[in-house]
Structure formats: structure tokens, C-alpha cells
Amino acid sequence: MSIYYVYVYFHPHTNVPFYVGYGKNTRYLDHLKEAKRYPKPKQSELKLNTIRKILRANSQPVIKIIDKNLSKECAVELEIFLIESIGQIINGTGPLTNIAPGGDGGCASGVNNPNYGNYWTDEQRQDLANKNKGNKSRTGMKNSEEAKMKQSYKARNRPLRACPHCNKIGASSQMGRWHFDNCKFKQD
Fold this sequence. Notes:
By secondary structure, the protein is of the alpha+beta class. It folds into 2 domains: 4-104, GIY-YIG endonuclease, CATH 3.40.1440; 155-188, no CATH class. The chain is 36% helix and 15% strand. It has helices at 27-37, 46-56, 72-86, 122-132, 145-156, 172-179; strands at 4-10, 17-23, 62-70, 160-162, 169-171. A 3-stranded antiparallel beta sheet has the order 2-1-3, with helices on one face. A two-stranded antiparallel sheet has the order 4-5. A hairpin with a 6-residue loop joins strand 4 and strand 5 (169-171). Helix 1 (27-37) crosses helix 2. The radius of gyration is 29 Å and the shape is elongated. The two termini are 55 Å apart. The mean pLDDT is 85.
């Protein structure tokens, strides 16, 4: 189906391209929306940080659709060609902020993932275990007798409320949250 297109983001003042992508529907606007939605810069987001910088200068990136009505294969091929021709910042060949060389992005799985086949050594496992030993997480920990006594006292002395519909008595917060509106004796 020929529903795909290839788009390029340009700096508004210099007209230098900084991102090439392909998509369908309104994909070309997603980067702009994301940069507006999350305005705080992050180190690993070259494309979004470039868009944020342009937006902070009270400007908008220029988005041009290079070709449309393409099959997915043709759109991917054109995207790869443009990225290769213009060049990427990441490998020092040009101005593009694209991380991947094109196609389906930089998410690699299986044998294409750089960590595929790597395993933790016993030394790495021990280092991680040592780092987590000082962790203050309560998971798996037991309360002291004093803490148990305090909890028990609070539970016994919590405020109680009676249901106005059935006169059932229970803890104030639970009755208000769960019982009152759901009481089977409640008249609508």
C-alpha cells in the first residue's frame, strides 16, 4: 500500500536539515509534539533537544515532505539514502541528529543488539549485590516488636463509622471508600 512518505526537519534560519524520517498519517508532527510536551532537555535526545532549542527561540522547525504515496519499502530505502547522503552528527559525517542509519529506528533486538550474547560474570554479579546491600527498601524485612505494637495500637484505636443504610461498623477510611456507595441497602 502506498501510504508512506519521507520527511525532513530543517533549521528555520539556516535551512540546514537536522532530521530525516518516514511515516504515515501525522507521524511527521510527533517529534514536534513530544518536544513541546516534555520541554526539559535530556542528554541522549539530539533530535528533540534541537527542536526544543528552536522552540525556545520562538521559532518553528521547517518540515518538508520529500516524497509521498510510497510503499513502506520505498520510504525506508529513501530515508536510508538521504541519511547516508546528508550524514549524521553521531558518526561525524553531517548535521543529522538521526541515531540510526534509517529503517525501523535504533531499537535493535536479538543478534542486532550490541549486548546480544553478553552475560554477567560472577564478579559483576557480586559487585551489584554489594551495591544493593545498603539498600533501605523494606521488601522482605521484618518489623521490630516496638513497630508491631505501634501498628496494633493504631489499628485498635482508629476512628469507626457506621453505615447509615445498614448500620455496619468499620474503619472510617475503608467504609467511606468502599462501603457507603456500594451498600446493598442503599436507596437510590
